[in-house]
Amino acid sequence: MKAVYGNGLQARVNTRKSGKYRVVTIPMHVFERYEDIKAQVVKVLCRKLERVKDERKKQIITKHLRRLTPTKGAVAVEHPNRESTQANPGNQNL
């Protein structure tokens, strides 16, 4: 990460050891700054949202997806039919 993003990113990343694993914690504002990292995080969050059953975890994942995606994309995730009804306002069968 240091080679690609420089020392600035490394200063914001926190690492700790959890059992036999190393946990890397990156603040959300870092994801917002780097488009390539943000795209990967959005993909992972979408996969997690499909698998999670706990409603509280779904709310947390949705909150983070809204923050990482543009406004139009967030609306499309929440309301898949919204764009089609805006394009054709006479057909609002919701």
Major sheet size, sense and barrel closure: 2 strands, antiparallel
How many individual helices? 7
- H and E order: HHEEHHHHH
**What structural class do you assign from the helix and strand content?**
mainly alpha
**Stretches with pLDDT under 50, minimum 5 residues:** 81-94
Gross morphology: globular
Sequence of strands across the biggest β-sheet: 1-2
Terminal residue distance: 46 Å
> Level of helix content?
55-70%
| Topology, number of strands | 2
* Spatial extent as radius of gyration: 17 Å
Relative strand content: 5-15%
Mean pLDDT: 76
Write the layout of secondary structure elements.
Layout: H1 2-5, H2 7-12, E1 14-18, E2 21-25, H3 28-33, H4 35-51, H5 55-68, H6 71-78, H7 82-87
Antiparallel strand pairs: 1-2
Helix pairs in contact: 4-5
Question: Could you describe the 3D structure shown?
Answer:
The longest helix has 17 residues. This protein has a two-stranded antiparallel ribbon with strand order 1-2. It has 94 residues and is mostly helical. It is built from 7 helices and 2 strands. Helix 4 packs antiparallel against helix 5. It is 65% helix and 11% strand. It is globular.
